[in-house]
Amino acid sequence: MSITVEAFNQEFENNIAQLKSFLLRITASVADAEDIAQDTYLKAVEKISTFRGDSSLKTWFFTIASNLAKNNLRAQKRWTENVTDITKAAALSNSNFFEEAMNIRATSPQGEFEAKEHIAFCFTCISKSLPLEQQLCIFLKEVYEFKVSEITTILDTTEAMVKYYLHTGRGKMMNIFEGRCALINKQGVCHQCSELNGIFNPKQNTQHELMKIDLVKEADKGDKEHLFELRMQILRELNPFKSKAAALQLHHLEHNRQVMEKYTS
Amino acid sequence: MSATAMAQTEKASTVKTTFSRQTKVSIEIKADAGIVWQLLTKASDYPRWNTTITSIEGNIALGETIKLKSTLDAKRTFKLKIKEFEPEKKLVWGDGQGTRVFTIAKKENGNLLFTMTEKIGGLMFPMYAKMIPPFDDAFDQFANDLKKESEKMMSAR
Fold first, then answer.
1. Which residue in A147, A183, A210, B48 has the most C-beta neighbors within 10 A?
2. Can you give the residue ranges of every domain in chain A?
3. Which CATH architecture is the domain B3-149 placed in?
4. pTM
5. Is the dihedral of CA B41, A151, A127, A33 positive or negative?
6. Partner residue opposite A167 with nearest CB, options B32, B37, B156
């Protein structure tokens, strides 16, 4: 299949934001996400003669990026389900963490705190407790909206495997949030969205703010599948690099990654 | 028409002889063989979907040994060796007393026929036969759980 350099570059440009967001959520590292995105472009240029047009260029870019990510140590690293407990304890014992965060909150144009951003951030962290294949499938399907048939191409596996990973991964994530997330379960042990909103937005009525989010509004209905879908909708709508809360959340993610790398080493 | 294609869903039944006992169940499943195979071979995932198994430790792979606990005898841990491992077709595990065979065959209508048999026996069998609980209900439950979970996964968008 022949494609002009301009058209190829334009197509890469059209997909780079989603690609970087995907890589960030898989590696939990800004530096690695940017490196892999750049390597994806170089690899795509190098291999363009092998692209036959059997899939879209977007699928092809994600295939290259996923292969690179699978070889990335930070992507391979698995965290634990209680990552938010571990990283909270580490943050509370590290005075620099809140000092830096308050500085970002006060000075950065992307230093706002938004509960929705934190919900997406939290999903990214907890998804790293899934086996990597399950995590990749969940993000590709639920957040970046690839079809099962496209994911089989991206991950070079069978439809049966993709469906298995999706089903088991979704089930695990639903159960973890059902047990932990106080936004959807009054007995949930994790209240970090509320706690951080109280710290970073002290003038706001936190409960009032949270009730603006569909996930919270519909929590009482107790439909786990539906609540999972609402959570995924939040991730789909957010670009973790571009939002008004990006700087604060990326700082938080970097902290969590460093803590978890030590914890799981 | 082959024997496999003619085989039908059968509720669990047991055939007893003096020196052995064999229980068999078959069920039709509308799913990809790969999905059924994944469910049968991912040891740690069993308790999530299979109401007859409380835990399996170890890897379900040829030559490996697993430790299985079931609801049939909650206090006992069965150490079982994986004797055959033919992806998407046949899995066999067992110990000195018995052998369980799982087979997956494609039917002419495109669905799968899953069959599970377990034969226990030997020269000492008459001495302990009465201590082994009947398997029929657990076999039906196992087959129905596998069908339900496989078809649920298959229907994923």
1. A183
2. 1-76, 78-263
3. 2-Layer Sandwich (3.30)
4. 0.85
5. positive
6. B156
